Amino acid sequence: GEAPQPVERGEEVGGPGPVVLDAHGPGATGADESGGDVQQLVAQRGGLPVGQIEVEFLEGSGCYGHNGNDDAAYEAALLARHAEGRPVRLQWMREEELGWAPYGPAAVAELEATLDADGDILTWSHELWSYGSRGRPGYSSIGPAFWAASHLAEPFEREAAHLGGAIRNLDPGYTLKEKRLVAHRLLDQPVRTSSLRSLGAHLNVFAIESFMDELAAATGTDPVAFRLRHLDDVRGREVIEVAAREAGWDEAPVAEGRGRGIGYARYKGQAGYCAVVAEVEATSRLRVVELTIAVDAGCVINPDGLENQVAGGAIQSTSWSTMEQVRFSTERILSDSWDSYPILQFSDVPEV
Question: Which residue, 100, 129, 160, sits at the end of a domain?
Answer without folding.
Answer: 100
